[in-house]
Amino acid sequence: MPENSWPENDSYNVPDSLHDLLMEVSELSDSEVVPLYPSGEHRRRKAALVLALIWSSTLALHVYVGGFWLILGLTMVMGVHSLRLLIARPPKLPASLSWQHPDPDVPRVSLLVAAKNEAAVIGALVKALCELDYPRDRYELWLIDDNSSDQTPTILDDLAKQYSQLRVLHRTAKDQGGKSGALNQVLPLTQGDIIGVFDADAQVPPDLLRRVVPFFSEAQLGAVQVRKAITNYRTNFWTQGQATEMALDTFFQQQRIAIGGIGELRGNGQFVRRQALEACGGWNEATITDDLDLTLRLHLNQWDIDFLPLPPVQEEGVTYFSALWHQRNRWAEGGYQRYLDYWPLMARNRLGPQKTFDLVMFWITQYGLPTAAVPDLLLALVRQQVPLLAPVTSLTLALSFLGMLAGLNRIRRSQKLPFRPLSLVIQALQGTVYMMHWFLVVASMTTRVAIRPKRLKWVKTMHQGEQDAQWLAE
Predict the structure, then answer these.
(1) What does the pLDDT average to over 141-151?
(2) Treating both helix axes as pointing N-terminal to C-terminal, what angle do 369-383 and 390-414 enclose, rounded to 10 degrees?
(3) CA dist list (Å): 396 to 78, 275, 360, 370
(4) Structural domain contains residue 274
(5) Is the link from the previous residue into 91 a cis peptide, with omega within 30 of 0?
(6) pLDDT per residue over 108-132, tens digit each?
(7) What parts of the sequence cross the membrane (predicted)?
(8) In this predicted model, which residue has the larger pLDDT, 288 or 12?
């Protein structure tokens, strides 16, 4: 995909920047629709201010005699929230559509795939998506060839002659906006009431649409995310870790939604109500993670996001650390960008109290804690004492471990696999060790985006069409 680009104003002084950032809150109206395409301006300035606040607050807590008690109080608040997450019961899933008495007016669905140099996997995906168990005249498939240099364009043109649902749009080097630009370009050509988005390496079960479409009977539902699973689990430690990470994400998605928190999109296997998508202005071309940005804009515009745990959409996991590092840095930075872009609306409680509190707790564990861990560890070494944030860190690791256990167990039960507690514990422990990379990713990313001028480097994740089913059976 072509590199995204947006204006970036990096010249500032701290007093003016703080004043300007605070003024953003007063300039927004409660009824204002979230900006269609945030320009991404001043992200570096905002990131520098946030980094300075986190580091200075960590220093102040070390110096302040009551700092430990403040951390203990935060840990207790987070502990109560964690307990709510662990004991919540996910809502009952809607019944799948039945074709015993087919409804001729089932919603129209448009499936979109943006692909660049995906000759190894695109044929299998097209075949799967064109043979879904859904009325042929009620869904369409759009493949966007994003200026590929391999055989992807030829393969797609040949496939379009075989499948009546398939439409192909070829983009050139002049077309910008990356994946978001490709999806925005094809959106006006689609006819679906529901828009589904897949990655080129997706493996899709035949009954997926019959499972997803009933969710949209809820008028306030803006989107549904399907659980993702890793096909090549057995390859090595990194792919095993990603598989366990997906199980953890499944658990947290369901639990956060159950307590009235934030459901999130994950790009591959996401379905969005057309009305909600158009109200939000389509996909943001000024971000590097279109799914995470759209997640927040949907919630800010009072739409909900639900989650389908079964059946999953499968995808390939990256097989070596350097690829994982590039991928997770992009995910981390894209997720961080949305807080920098939309914080004024969140500060005005645009999300409502439950979603706002859930998002704050999530930000602390995902971004705040890893960023503060650097100065906390350095100060602890200098002062020869235990890191001040140890209680919060311990709680976060414990929640992650328990979430992995619960997520793995739910997947096991959904697949009707035998219960092997020792195997689940070993997988969860290995997954916890694997997830430690996130601390390094976030700590380096938050420092980098606050100091260095923006340099957007897109590193393609290579897909080989690898498969590895029933990974929990071992």
Answers:
(1) 94
(2) 140
(3) 9, 37, 14, 11
(4) yes
(5) no
(6) 999 999 999 999 999 999 999 999 9
(7) 47-64, 388-408, 428-451
(8) 288
Q: Is the pLDDT of residue 27 over 60?
A: no
On whether residue 165 sits in a domain, the answer given is: no
Q: Give dist(CA 188, CA 185) in Å, integer.
A: 7
Q: How confident is the model at residue 2 (pLDDT cuts 50, 70, 90)?
A: very low
What is the tally of structural domains in the chain?
Answer: 1
The alpha-carbon radius of gyration of the chain (Å, integer) is 22
Q: Print the domain residue range for 471.
A: 1-95+218-474
Position 167 in a domain: no
CA dist., res. 328 & res. 322, Å (int): 10
> Which CA distances in Å does 455 have to 8, 292, 448, 449?
10, 20, 10, 9
pLDDT value of position 66: 85
CA dist list (Å): 14 to 10, 267, 377: 12, 36, 26
Structure letter (DSSP) for residue 316: P
Tell me phi and psi for residue 171, to 5 degrees.
-100, 155
pLDDT classification of 39: cutoffs 50, 70, 90: low
Q: Which residues contact 35 (CB under 8 A, 6 or more apart)?
A: 281
Q: How far is CA 134 from CA 109, 123, 138, 198, 223, in A?
A: 10, 20, 7, 17, 19
DSSP 203: B
Identity of the amino acid at 139: Y
Question: Are 267 and 182 in contact, with CB atoms under 8 Å apart?
Answer: no
Residue 26 has pLDDT above 60, yes or no: no
The pair of structure tokens assigned to 41 is 């301006």
Exposed, middle or buried, 464 (CB in 10 Å: 0-12/13-18/19+)? Answer: exposed
* pLDDT tens digit sequence for 304-333: 999 999 999 999 999 999 999 999 999 999
Looking at every residue in the chain, the average pLDDT score rounds to 87
Is residue 144, in this structure, part of any structural domain at all? no
Report which of 207, 243, 262 is spatially closest to residue 408, judged by C-alpha positions: 243
Instruction: Write the DSSP symbol of residue 5.
Output: -
Q: What is the mean pLDDT of residues 423-449?
A: 95
> H helices within 348-389, ranges in order?
353-363, 369-383
Question: Is there a contact between 178 and 458 (Cβ–Cβ < 8 Å)?
Answer: yes
